[in-house]
């Protein structure tokens, strides 16, 4: 009974934080703080290091499901057509350059004894918080025209490729298990693709899904949750990796949904952002080691500088010739903004023992700084009244 009470108390505290975050943003619209930052801060406050009214352990299964939804939605929202355009190819090149710089810089930190296992830290340097950035960029008119297409492609690369790298390099015990994990993901993709063909338009099964996807049945959402929970259960049982599976499931689900994709996306947003994803971020806030940050604040500053240099600076060269200097600086600031995937990487690294607690805390703190500082600088440089003539290779946003 005590365990049940502890779980409910922790869930109640998380629900309070999750409800207050958007309320505060609505009451104080001039405070341009992303909701993720408030959720993390709320987790710190209600967690064991401050008020102690909530504990992370009782809500860990729900946090795992929230983490799965983060990657499921990232795969679902990805526009694969971007990588057939010039913006996508340049975004891929910029990310590869960032990865090489990250491996070199973090490898040096490893040799100095500041980092124990450099792969998760290096990957954290290559991420972009596209989901966090899109509302800010859209409100300020930065997703229109040539610049908008390159910003979207750069942000998508900062989500897609780190996720693929996480699946390959983290949480895998040995090479055989890694291959088995990737094979399982391939099987999942094939099964989902086959299922979409079995459900022919006008068929009985397709009619059932079409008729019962709204109101009390919500059949498409329930099957999506079933798929995700099944994926997490199987990967936990056989020690496989759930990250890539959730991401690929999101990509295939979008194609599987067909014309109903926007409807399903709205339902996934409600289930994910309305309930499970806030639990993950508040839970992550509860696990941040404030004592470690206080003991080594320069580590946070170091990671903040590396995120800007490693993820942002390649944009100044890669987009030379297609974007002006001002736009390239804006692109550098936007692509260097990172938070949700850094939080996920820190959690994965802590759980599998590949990341030092002080590095996890400093990385999340540095990512919070990028969200607070860099988008504001990018927006302040925007000149909506000055429209440059579109070029032949300019993609549509």
Automatic annotation (TrEMBL):
Cell location: Membrane
GO molecular-function terms, A-Z: antiporter activity
GO CC list: membrane
InterPro entries: Cation/H_exchanger_TM, Na+/solute_symporter_sf
Keywords: Antiport, Ion transport, Membrane, Transmembrane, Transmembrane helix, Transport
Major place of residence: membrane
Topology versus the membrane: Multi-pass membrane protein
PANTHER family: NA(+)_H(+) ANTIPORTER YJBQ-RELATED (PTHR43562:SF1), NAPA-TYPE SODIUM/HYDROGEN ANTIPORTER (PTHR43562)
Protein name listed in UniProt: Potassium transporter Kef
Species in which this protein is naturally found: Pseudonocardia halophobica
